[in-house]
Design brief:
It is a single chain. By secondary structure, the chain is α+β, with helices and mostly antiparallel strands. It has a domain at 13-50 and 87-167: NADH Oxidase (3-Layer(aba) Sandwich). The protein has helices at 3-9, 23-33, 54-69, 71-76, 78-83, 106-126, 142-147, and strands at 16-17, 45-51, 90-97, 130-134, 154-165. Helix 2 runs antiparallel to helix 6. It binds flavin mononucleotide.
């Protein structure tokens, strides 16, 4: 797909099913993520690919983490949390793996991980798949990082649910760029 068309037609989809990217397509998707802007070439990224039975593992890990963070919320939302990973055949958990650096602050590394996440969504869309970036109750938390055996300096910045949209998504009306752009001509 033409790049501008890909960017202009990306639309999140909450319900996703098979087919999902093949191993060859996934390789290209991850290579696209690894081309995110990256100050000082720190490569501050990790990706956890969850599919098949891994979704059950993710469901349990999410519930255990939330029980430690907020037990009453975990009890209230147990079913929702256990079902959440089954909303798509593939989930890519994007992690900002923050390095201690004398010039590049944490925020730049988190933004770089965000750019990697967007590259994943765009690459998947260019191949005909859909996705949605979710954070939910347990991102940005050390407890969930520990459940994934991540390091203390790793921050989960999003769950990218990827697959084929169960329904045709309609694009929102085109925005007026003048509402957002300040011109200094
Ligand atoms: C960092 C981030 C976190 C998000 N977390 C959630 C979330 O937890 N749940 C949700 O429904 N949408 C979440 N969204 C919004 C969706 O990904 C999506 O952008 C939104 O539904 C609008 O659809 P669109 O991307 O097609 O414009 C998040 C977006 C970003 C950038």
């Amino acid at each position: 797909m033409d790049t501008i068309k890909t960017l202009l037609t990306r639309k999140s989809s909450p319900r996703l099913d098979e087919p999902s990217p093949s191993p060859e397509e996934l390789d290209l998707i991850f290579q696209s993520a690894l081309r995110a802007p990256d100050h000082a070439a720190l490569k501050p990224w990790k990706f956890i690919k969850v599919s098949g039975e891994g979704r059950g593992k993710l469901a349990k890990a999410s519930l255990e983490a939330l029980k430690k963070i907020n037990p009453s919320k975990a009890n209230e939302n147990e079913e929702k949390i256990l079902n959440a990973p089954y909303r798509a055949p593939l989930i890519i958990i994007v992690v900002a793996s923050i390095k201690d650096h004398h010039i590049v602050p944490d925020i730049e590394q988190i933004l770089s991980a965000g750019a990697a996440a967007q590259n994943i969504l765009i690459a998947a869309h260019s191949m005909g798949y859909s996705g949605i970036w979710r954070t939910g109750l347990i991102s940005f938390n050390k407890e969930i990082s520990r459940s994934f055996d991540l390091d203390d300096n790793d921050v989960v910045i999003g769950y990218l649910y990827i697959g084929t949209s169960e329904k045709e998504m309609t694009l929102p009306p085109k925005s007026n760029i003048n509402d957002f752009v300040i011109n200094w001509d």
